[in-house]
């Protein structure tokens, strides 16, 4: 039942009001050339131009700003490979509270630098979900900080959904909306508000073939253990949250996976044509269209470009 889901449209609407003074209303870009190349009219919601360079600023601010003064005073804590970590550090700074961040040892250097610049207190761990969660739990017990998960949290999901809400307000009549899935927070928020604002819209989730646990879980109707993720899309190397799966099952029309080569090609195409920097995770929905995993001919299609935090010394096409 929809009433059993972790968030409702009203949560996204309230999140939009709560965070409006703290995040950017990012632009929506279009390209005649990309429309011709990909066979659909595309509207790119540019969360790569968001504060900290990713949509994660939305969910982190919603969670942090909703804390009581007593909870906020004890600080906040999370585990993240990068974008959520930087987002939480920024949100904590807006309330002048501590942000304790657990990061895997293989987190991209650019994202580690961003967290440090924003004042986050970093604790490194082995690059596994179990290690991240165990380290975070130990620090939470020691410090008394409030855990703000990167995706499996209603306040975070609701904040992430505000990106889609802005897109659909700005571009009426969109036929389909696509976003990538890692832990599922963005897709859960997107699906919740998109289905409410435009009941007939196609809601399509996208994921790398080499990090496909969310797709397998969605198809099975229960969380599925998949092979360890091995994708260039570092922001999607997480496992689907149990609070997110029911929302995806309730609202998604389709879920498709894409190849690594298509992710690289789509990323480069966006760089070359739109003249903007996006990270591999952002390219996954574009790859789904480029690789013809979805048929959106003559449709008006919205895509959430999730972030633009890239290690410029290690661009994926340089190793080809």
From TrEMBL:
InterPro entries: TrpB-like_PALP (IPR001926), TrpB-like_PALP_sf (IPR036052). Residues 19-307 form the Tryptophan synthase beta chain-like PALP domain. It holds the Pfam family PALP. The keyword Metal-binding does not apply. GO terms for biological process: D-serine biosynthetic process. Keywords: Lyase, Pyridoxal phosphate. Its cofactor is pyridoxal 5'-phosphate. One of its GO terms (molecular function) is threonine racemase activity. PANTHER family: SERINE / THREONINE RACEMASE FAMILY MEMBER (PTHR43050), SERINE RACEMASE (PTHR43050:SF1). Belongs to the serine/threonine dehydratase family. This is Pyridoxal-phosphate dependent enzyme.
